[in-house]
Amino acid sequence: MMVVDSSSVQNLYVTHHRWLHELLRRRLSNAFDAADLAHDTFIRVLKRPQVFDCETRERSYLATIARGLCIDHWRRRQLELAWLETLASRPQAVQPSPEQRAIIVETLYEVDAMLLRLPKKVRDAFILAQLHGLPYRAIAEEIGVCERMVKKYLAQALMHCAMLEAELDGLLIE
Fold first, then answer.
1. What CATH number does the domain containing 128 carry?
2. What is the signed CA dihedral for 116, 133, 135, 78, rounded to 10 degrees?
3. Does the pLDDT of residue 112 top 90, yes or no?
4. How many Å apart are CA 166 and CA 161, to the nearest integer?
5. Residue 60 counted as domain residue
6. What distance in Å separates the CA atoms of residue 137 and residue 146, rounded to the nearest whole number?
7. How many domains does the chain fold into?
8. What is the pLDDT of residue 114?
């Protein structure tokens, strides 16, 4: 991959921003979210600029980045909606403050992203243990492995949790 100067990225932006914004607006049915994700797309391009030999490849690159951002956006919305539904069922007296809500949603998003990085059996074992409280034997039967593998999977998942906590605390640098 060849690094491109800022004028090439600027040219890419000028040439394709309107097209990308319209693509995202149709996909998201919301001009404000589309503007945010178009902006985020070009931020990613700035971090990893590339050289293209035709406009079609430029648009394909931008669309691929935007598609991933849309998926992240939709997952985040699903998490937020699930949290708001749970929150609505709680008495008003125990409702968290707006700041606490934002922190909780962000934490849920980070945990979800961490879980998605885990292999399926590791993720399943972790969810069955942590959310459903199943013992190792029941988890082993559920995912079709021995109890020793469940222990290994849970250790792997807990290591990822520790890494996530360290990242969130700013202790790790990417």
1. 1.10.10
2. -20
3. no
4. 9
5. yes
6. 8
7. 2
8. 83
